[in-house]
Amino acid sequence: MAGHRSWTDKRMEILIGIVLRYGVLLSALIVAFGAAIYLVRHGHSPTDYRVFRSEPSDLRSVGKIVRDAFALQGRGIIQLGLLLLIATPVVRVAFSIFGFAEEHDRMYVIVASLVLLILLYSLVGSIRSA
Amino acid sequence: MTILEFSLVVAAGSLVAGFLGALTGLGGGVVLIPMLSLLLGVDIRYAIGASLVSVIATSSGAAAAYVREGISNIRIGMFLEIATTLGALVGATLATRISTSAISIVFGLVLIGSAFLSWKPRSKSEREAALDPLATKLRLNGSFPEGDGIRNYNVQRVPLGWALMFGAGTLSGLLGIGSGAVKVLAMDQAMKIPFKVSTTTSNFMIGVTAAASAGIYLSRGYIDPGLSMPVMLGVLAGSLLGTKVLVKAHPKWLRRVFSIVIVALGIEMLYKGISGRI
Asked: Can you tell me the ipTM of this complex?
């Protein structure tokens, strides 16, 4: 019984691991693509990160980031890639809820759902307030 | 410096940070944030936002490799993540309210603390601990392949581990680091989980913890694409390189050198924080 359980755990985790790896790869490609546009257009302007100014509102919420990215704005595309990256651990938790359900482990379906709720609260709650 | 030069310098520095972080198990953030804020004069809030993104990249990117070894325990990870994600929310909220010199002082202390933790030799005693009723009820006990057999372990002191994890999550949200050193401490020392299981489970957890505070950082405008781009790509490439080398090397001496560097950076962060020059 225990051996069977750990085998399914492992198979589930390997599957999730592969999904995550491709998610990271895809977001890195999007970031690199945005970086190319950004550097070609602005590469020779001076930088200034010494003084903190909050990012403009179009780089702070999902809808506006997507709109900027599709307008082929370099910074918008990079931010879209970063958004996708932030989503990968959330996907991992969501997948493991299905995994635990598959194993009929009700307690851990609840535990994983709780973690997912906290994550969504942070992401959705903060996006709405922006 | 132009944006192009700046991006190349940051990418090169992040590559080294990611490489050393993966090799020593301390993560890239501990060198990345001092590098950006002390050497390149980046505001610490931008540095934290960029580092947080790179923490997620390394955690998710290495997930498949770690799982294939078959020793992380997802039930322990998931159960403790309730604590780390809640802590991360608290930390990220705190970060937007307290001054940068206070953040810098806390960062300095954490750097010195984690260097101390990584210096300390691991206890090699194989304890056959008794079953803990709470851990049994939560199905946290497990087994993993070691040598030519299977080693079973019984998890201890669940409430203490949970409380430490809440602290680890708060630090992660406040400072933009993975705080893997504190997570390993909670599992290895407090909960008596074997070291190998602790480190791989910690890697699985840091990405989820970072994601909990990343949403808050994004919406507050702390994540700058121009800065995060070279940091993310550099750290990702560096840590992939680091995990490749890790399979072959036994970097005990490297860990020591790295600890000394971290202590030096910690002292400088403390000094800048106290003198208010950050």
From this structure: 0.86
